[in-house]
Amino acid sequence: MIRHVIREVRADLIASPVQTGFQDATRKVETVGMCVIRVNTDQGLTGIGVTYHEVGGEAIKEMIERYYGPKLIGRDPFETEEIWEELFHYARGVGRKGLSFCALSAVDIALWDLKGKIMDLPLYRLLGGNKKKVPVYASGGWTSYDDDALVAEALEMVRRGYKMIKLKVGVEGGRNIRRDTQRCRKVREAIGPDIGFMVDANNAFHSGDAVRLANEIREYDILFFEEPVFADDIPGLRRFRQGTDIPLGTGEHEYTRYGARDLILGEAVDYLQMDVTRCGGITEMLKVIALSQAWNLAFAPHAMEHIHMHLVSAAANGAFLERLFLFEDITAMVFKDAPVPEEGILTIPDKPGLGLELNSEFLR
């Protein structure tokens, strides 16, 4: 095998304003974007890494180009553990979570993409998986929608072949539980009994109100209830879990194996939803998955399905992927021919590494 040495690191920032004013229970979404990193070797291979942003994308790009990127020059892409530890400790005083960790995640993903390309193996195979087809659910249904628009999007998801969907709860900032219950009833009546139905509160409630809502909508066969309370409120998550038999999904706002450990030991999760483009990249996510398996929990990562498809394929407890309708347009612009789900199934390309090709013309 020819040895590769990293010669160049580049980052591109893509941001698109959201024109229609999407709103969840706790915030208005004004921008969607990605920070795309390219790590080039002396042998002519390029590894792709990606994270996403709604605010702070410029800081992510700066962190990669000014601080992390120079420390990769001259290194072997296979040094993922050593590089991860070095970059983690380099920024630990200012960045054990948040934007700097998004930057670290993108760097690590690019190195794993390079490893797959050097070995001429799709990443899911390199990670020990062999499932080419992975279930995926559709995600949207903003609280800013009126009831007709909410039901219409749910029906559109079903029309496009999805067997599972996820919609928002927490209308009026979580202050109108009766309306949330009515909206969930209308959706279930529209989609019928055979479609998996999940809800996401985006940190809207106190635990008591979240339990009340969960128990009012349980008759609509809710697959899981996501982030019912503030993501850092582990005692509140535990109280929610003790107060209802609807499974609890959380973790998209957690970072590192230590965040996963705290959720698990706090008895505050059923579906672990940590995000590889935030939590520390593939190097760290493999440790997170191992923890979830040790406690026999489902691994159901948040968004970014084209990166997570390899991890869900390789993880014995991988449940399914999430496809955010909000990100469909920008994903189609950034990547050439990224796979699109058919009948609720995403088929992983048999190309080396991530199996993704950047649209260089768009990036320019």
Automatic annotation (TrEMBL):
Domain Mandelate racemase/muconate lactonizing enzyme C-terminal: 147-247
CDD domains: MR_like
Keyword Magnesium: yes
Cofactor list: Mg(2+)
Keywords for the protein's UniProt record, in alphabetical order: Magnesium, Metal-binding
GO BP of this protein: amino acid catabolic process; carbohydrate catabolic process
Species per Swiss-Prot/TrEMBL record: Blautia hydrogenotrophica (strain DSM 10507 / JCM 14656 / S5a33)
SMART domains linked to this entry: MR_MLE
Protein name stated in the entry: Mandelate racemase/muconate lactonizing enzyme C-terminal domain-containing protein
Highest taxon above the source species: Bacteria
Gene Ontology MF term list: hydro-lyase activity; magnesium ion binding
Secretion signal span: none
Cross-referenced InterPro entries: Enolase-like_C_sf, Enolase-like_N, Enolase_C-like, Mandel_Rmase/mucon_lact_enz_CS, Mandelate_racemase_C, Mandelate_racemase_N_dom, RHMD-like
SUPFAM superfamilies noted in UniProt: Enolase C-terminal domain-like (SSF51604), Enolase N-terminal domain-like (SSF54826)
